[in-house]
Amino acid sequence: RREGHQTYAEAFHAAWSGQPEAEQLLAAVAADAGTPGIAKASALTELASHLTPANIDLARAGLADPDPIVRIGALDMLENAPPELRWTLGSPSLSDEVRGVRIRAAVLLASIPTTQLPLVERERFEHAAAEFIAAQRLNADRPEARAELGNFLVQRGLVDQAEVEYKAALDLSPGSSPAAINLT
User: Fold this and answer.
1) CB atoms within 10 A of CB 171
2) Distance between CA 81 and CA 86 in Å, rounded?
3) What is the per-residue pLDDT across 110-139, written as a single tens digit (0 to 9) for each?
4) Alpha-carbon span 94 to 120, nearest angstrom
5) Rounded to an integer, what distance in angstroms lies between the CA atom of residue 184 and that of residue 161?
């Protein structure tokens, strides 16, 4: 090990090649205070497919990190978590000071019904969801944004509105695979 050189490439290689030690190596990267934010966020994102009770504390720590990209990575890590855990850990991010974090939290929580939640919780979600929708509308000339909005609307149970977005994406780019696949 030479001073000043990256030490986390082995963890990503293990994750991308399906090696059994990937979870342990990624967890070490995510837990290392000396790791740059982007690498820590990437390790947290990669841990989404390795989410276990043993490493859920890494997500908790990531959600409290001062670097917003790490907070987004921690939200990504929760993508495959059960809905109640996603809501418990992810919903405070709906009020994050950084819009990108709030938007990612809204996407993460989109499939969770909010009708049984207290009014304050529903309002926080709806505000972040509106920010996500506005961001996609701002980029409505890109098929990726229209397809992403369609995916969000499907998660919310708004299938007819999602269909409109997928068709708009295909109008912009007839070869848009995400829109075509999700439309069928």
Assistant:
1) 12
2) 6
3) 999 988 888 999 999 999 999 999 999 999
4) 11
5) 14
